[in-house]
Design goal:
By secondary structure, the chain is α/β, with parallel strands linked by helices. About 25% of the residues lie in helices and about 25% in strands. Strands 2-1-5-6 form a four-stranded parallel beta sheet, covered by helices on one side. A three-stranded antiparallel beta sheet has the order 7-8-9, with no helix packed on it. Strands 3-4 form a two-stranded antiparallel ribbon. A hairpin with a 5-residue loop joins strand 3 and strand 4. It is globular and about 55 Å long. The two termini are about 25 Å apart.
C-alpha cells in the first residue's frame, strides 16, 4: 500500500497484485488478512485455480503449462506483484518436484515473465522437516532448484524463544547480502 518501510524510508505507491493460493480461501482468509494489513483491495486480484482444456474438461491451474493464464491476468490488471502460495502445489504433474533440473525448467518461464513484465514474482514454499540442517538455503521444501532459480531467497521462521519470528535473507543475487541482519517480528497469538 505504499507504507513507510521498516528502515523509515517511504515506500512506493501501491501497485496491482495478483495472488494464487492453494491452501487459503480468498474470502475467509486472504481478504481478511489483507484488510488487517491495511491493503488497498482495489488493486488485488486472484488468478483462476482451474481452466478448461480444448475438450472442455476442467483442469487445475498448473505451471508451467498454464503460464498464459498468468500472463493474461498480468496484462488485464497491470499488476507488478505476483504471489503463488505454495509454488509446489501448482507445479505440473510432469515436473519432478525433488529434481533440480526438472524444477528449474518449470521456474524458467516465471523468470522470463518477471523480466518481460517488470513484475516481482514471490513464490512461497514450506520448510522441510530437516531442522538439523543449519544451511537456510536447504530448508525449503522440494528441490534446491527453486532456490537456485530465485534471485533472492527469504526465510521466515519462528525464533527459538517462540515469541517472535525472524526474517533472514540467505540468498541475494541482485544486491549486497544484508550481512545476517535479522528483524524480529511479533507473533500474533490470535492466529
Amino acid at each position: 500500500k505504499g507504507s513507510k518501510r521498516p528502515d523509515g524510508g517511504r515506500g512506493k505507491e501501491a501497485v496491482g497484485s495478483l495472488m494464487r493460493s492453494a491452501e487459503d480461501d480468498v474470502a475467509d482468509t486472504i481478504v481478511p488478512r489483507l484488510r488487517a494489513a491495511g491493503a488497498d483491495l482495489s488493486v488485488v486480484a486472484t488468478v483462476p485455480l482451474v481452466r478448461e482444456d480444448d475438450s472442455g474438461i476442467v483442469k487445475a491451474f498448473s505451471l508451467p503449462e498454464d503460464l498464459s493464464i498468468l500472463v493474461d491476468a498480468l496484462e488485464k490488471t497491470a499488476a507488478k506483484f505476483v504471489v503463488i502460495d505454495p509454488v509446489t502445489a501448482f507445479l505440473s504433474e510432469h515436473i519432478q518436484s525433488h529434481n533440480d533440473s526438472s524444477v528449474r525448467k518449470a521456474m524458467r518461464p516465471l523468470t522470463d515473465l518477471a523480466h518481460e513484465s517488470g513484475a516481482a514474482i514471490l513464490l512461497l514454499r514450506h520448510l522441510n522437516k530437516d531442522s538439523k540442517n543449519g544451511n537456510a538455503l536447504y530448508r525449503g521444501g522440494g528441490s534446491i532448484g527453486c532456490t537456485g532459480s530465485a534471485r533472492s531467497v527469504m526465510l521466515l521462521a519462528r525464533a527459538p524463544d517462540g515469541d517472535s519470528l525472524v526474517l533472514a535473507q540467505p540468498k541475494s543475487n541482485l544486491a549486497a547480502a544484508p550481512g545476517g541482519q535479522w528483524r524480529a517480528l511479533p507473533v500474533d497469538s490470535g492466529r
